[in-house]
Write a structure and sequence with these properties.
four-stranded antiparallel sheet; globular; 235 residues; ten-stranded mixed sheet; mainly beta
């Protein structure tokens, strides 16, 4: 599903920082345990040219480890390359934020030297790039949820942009329930955030609000296992 839209100019008052609030899943597990400790993703910049979406960055399989709001670890995911040559190197980082409003994944991409992602009139494989977007796990390497997470509800998507590396930020309207109630597998190649070549954007942040459902009965299983261990120790 693709939506073509003009970039809005809604200025964000600020970005919420991580809070002390923690979701309780009933068996001692917090939201930090939603993901595997070594969870890594892939991300790309893609352009619509010649009637199809084409990957523009040169390292689509680069592994981006989970970092944090306070210490984002940007990873080189390759150069944006168009028919006229290389534009700039793109760096990406992602982290999980748990705040009182829910759970969020923040995926941030920026150009290394502040060049716009895609220049006006750029072509890919002979086709003029009409719009560009991003992909999270387009090669299948999406978010690594733990095994006990059986269902993930992707509640909201908000895409923010900047012309100055994230110093001044504006956003598109929030998209609610992007999958229309479907279970989210931790990837995103829907291209719901469309930008136009030559727009000057050199930074983008994608915010995924989600909720996770643990395995039914997992709390009882873990509590039962603890009780059994205690009985064995007393015996």
């Amino acid at each position: 599903m693709r939506f073509e839209k003009t970039l809005g100019c809604v200025v964000l008052a600020g970005v919420a920082a991580s809070g002390a609030w923690a979701q309780d899943y009933g068996d001692g597990r917090g939201a930090e345990e939603l993901f595997k400790p070594d969870s890594k993703i892939s991300a790309t910049v893609s352009g619509f040219a010649g009637g199809s979406w084409r990957v523009l960055t040169t390292e689509p399989d680069a592994n981006i480890p989970r970092s944090s709001f306070d210490n984002p670890m940007f990873v080189d995911i390759g150069d944006v390359v168009v028919d006229s040559g290389s534009v700039d190197t793109v760096e990406a980082a992602w982290w999980h934020q748990e705040v009182s409003g829910g759970n969020y994944i923040r995926l941030t991409m920026r150009t290394e030297n502040g060049t716009e992602f895609v220049p006006f009139g750029a072509k890919k494989n002979g086709g003029t790039i009409q719009a560009y977007s991003y992909e999270l796990g387009g090669n299948g390497n999406g978010l690594d949820f733990r095994q006990w997470v059986t269902d993930v509800d992707w509640e909201q998507l908000t895409i923010s942009y900047s012309y100055d590396g994230g110093q001044t930020v504006f956003s598109d309207p929030t998209i609610h329930d992007p999958l229309s109630g479907g279970n989210w597998d931790g990837t995103d190649d829907l291209h719901l955030g469309l930008a136009l070549p030559g727009d000057g954007v050199n930074w983008v942040q994608v915010s995924y609000k989600f909720s996770a459902i643990p395995t039914p009965g997992s709390a009882a299983v873990l509590l039962g296992a603890g009780a059994l261990a205690a009985r064995r120790r007393r015996a």
